[in-house]
Amino acid sequence: MNAQQRELRELYQDTDERTEPFDPLTLSGEGCVLLAAEEGGKLLACGALKRWDRDSAEVKRMYTVPGARGCGLGRALLHELIARGRAAGYRRLVLETGDQQAAALALYERAGFRRIPNFGYYEGMDNSLCYELPLQDT
């Protein structure tokens, strides 16, 4: 997680240490999922679902290390998180990403996520973009 935060601070030229609080224990509760891809004991990519309520979960901490980008790991993890969200009975997934993260924006939009007004912690943050994916049976 530290590498992700360092990369985001550099990308946004942000010297403010304020970030959304991250407590791994909040990802270990009922309805939460933490996924990772590793090779040879090295973490390559990760992502999580954090339960909001009975109907909703937030995609959190999507990250692929720079040397593993372009291999489809982020896409595979996101698709698995979507599948796990459906299996858990969530009606929708939401997420936040930054406006300078073109690869992330493309990934989420290709997966069917659509822009929504900024929510919760992200309200009023100019660089934040929030998305939603309805999980209806088709």
TrEMBL record:
What InterPro entries does the entry give? Acyl_CoA_acyltransferase, Bact_Acetyltransf, GNAT_dom
Q: Does the keyword Acyltransferase apply?
A: yes
Fetch the Pfam families from UniProt.
Acetyltransf_1
Q: Which Gene3D superfamilies match?
A: 3.40.630.30
Q: Which UniProt keywords apply?
A: Acyltransferase, Transferase
Ranges where the N-acetyltransferase domain occurs: 1-136
For this protein, the record's PROSITE patterns field holds:
GNAT (PS51186)
- List the molecular function annotations (GO) for this entry: acyltransferase activity, transferring groups other than amino-acyl groups
- PANTHER family membership: AMINOALKYLPHOSPHONATE N-ACETYLTRANSFERASE-RELATED (PTHR43877:SF2), AMINOALKYLPHOSPHONATE N-ACETYLTRANSFERASE-RELATED-RELATED (PTHR43877)
Protein name as it appears in the record? N-acetyltransferase
